[in-house]
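Ligand-bound model needed. N-(aminocarbonyl)-beta-alanine.
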Amino acid sequence: MTFEQFNHIEALLDNSSSPLLIQHGTVVDHDTIRIADVLVVDGVIEQIADHVRPISEDTRIVDAKGLYVMPGGIDVHTHFNIDAGMTRSCDDFFTGTRAAACGGTTMIIDHMGFGPKGCDLFHQLDVYHEYARDKAVIDYSFHGVIQHIDERILSQMEEMVHQRGISSFKLYMTYTYKLDDCSVLKALTQLKKVGALTTVHPENDAALSLKRQQFISEGKVAPKYHALSRPLECEAEAIARVINLAKLADSAPLYIVHLSNGLGLDYTRLARQNQQPVWVETCPQYLVLDSSCYDREDALKYVLSPPLRDKEENDKLWQGLRDGSIDTVATDHCSFTFAEQKQLGAEDFTKTPNGIPGVETRMPLLFSEGVMAGRITPNQFVSLTSYQPAKLFGLYPNKGHLGVGADADIVLFDPGKQQAIRHINLHDNADYTPYESIPCKGWPLMTFSRGKLVAYDGEFTGEAGDGHFVHRKPFSQSSY
Ligand code: URP
Ligand code: ZN
Ligand code: ZN
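Prediction:
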C-alpha cells in the first residue's frame, strides 16, 4: 500500500459515519450496468446518478474509476461454530464473518446445527443468537433447522416466520436427524402455509449407508471411499424425490442446497418446465474442484457432502449458471483444521468431519472463473451472489441491489488485480484453503457494510459486533 493510499483509507475509517461518495465506478446490478456515482448517507444509498456532488465537508470520497461497484455478496449457506458431533467447526461468527467481509460478502445466512434430540424449533435459534451476538462483523440471519416433525414443531413454524424473522428452514434427507418422506411432506406443507421456503440437503441415506458399510467391511477406509460411497445418483434420486414431495405438498416452494451434478440439475429443470417453484444453489467447490482431489496425499481436506464429482460435472453446472437454471452460488463454509480435526478420519473416512472452508474465496473465484473467463456476465455475477439470495430469503429490497433506500452493502471489485489464492492471505480460522494456488483475476478492493469500510485490499478493517441480526420477510412467491 502506498503512503497516499494509506492516508486515504485512514480518512475513510476515521469518519465511518459521515456521508460516502463513490465516484466514476462501473455500477452493476442484476439487470443494469453503467458508469455512475453512488452517494451513501447514514448507511443507506441516497442517490445514484451520472454525477453526484459531495453533500458536506466531511463526505468521504472514493474514486472507483476502473472498478466494478456491486451489491455486497450474500452467502446464504455457512456453518459457523457448528457442533458436528465429533468436533466443532473452527470458525465462529467473528472469524467466519471477518473472512466473509474480506472476500466481498456483506451478509450471511447460517444453517444452524442440530440441537439435543427432541428440542423445539426455538431452541437452536436462541443458541445461535448467543453464538453471533457481539461477534458478527457483517449482517446475519439463520435458517431454521428441522430435526423431527410433530404437532408442536408444526405449530411453532408460524412464530418462527412472523415473529422471529426466520423465513427459511433446512431439512436433511441424510445425517443423524434425517426426515422420512412422511415428515418431509408434512414439513413442506406447513412451511408453505406459513410463508417459508424449505431448503433441502438431498442424498439418499439408505443407498449411501449401504455403500459405506460395504467399503468399511472390505477395509476400504481412505478418503476417496467417502466420495465413492456417495455417488451422484444418491443425490439426484433424493432431488427427484423431494421435488415430487413438494409437488404433493400443494406445490410448496423448494430450494435445493449445494447441487453438485448435472443429473440432479436436469431434474430441477424438468420441474421448472412444469412451473414448479424450485430454486437451485451450487457452490464454488462443485465448479472449480473435482474428484481428482481424492487421489492427493491431503485428500482429507476435500471430505465434504455431497463429495466432489468428476470434471465433466463442473461444465454442466457452469452451463446451469449461464442458462439461469441455477439461481445462487453459496459456499457451505464448514471449516475444520487439516492438522487436527480432519485427521480424525485419517484411518477411517467415516470419522472425518464433513465440510470445507470457502466464505472468503466465493466472490473472487466466481468473478475470476465466471466473469473474467467469459462464462457469465457481470449482471449474472450479481444475480447469483446477491440479488437472487436477497429475493429468495426475504432481504430484498433492503439488500441485493444498489438502489435508493437500500443498505449501503457495497463491494468494489478491481478486475485488474491478479493474485493466486493463498491461505496465508485469508482471514478464517482454518489452516488451509481447498483452493490453494488457484490464480484469480479480479479481487475485492473495498467492502462496505452499511457504509462502513470493513475490508480494504485484503485487510480487515471492521469490528466484532458491527453486524446486525436481520429480521427477514416471509417468503413470497408472487415476487417471481
Ligand atoms: O460436508 C458438508 N457439506 N458439511 C456441512 C453440512 C452440510 O451438509 O451442509
Ligand atoms: Zn448439506
Ligand atoms: Zn451445509
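The pocket of N-(aminocarbonyl)-beta-alanine (ligand 1) is lined by residues 79, 201, 304-305, 332, 334, 354-355 (CB under 6 Å).
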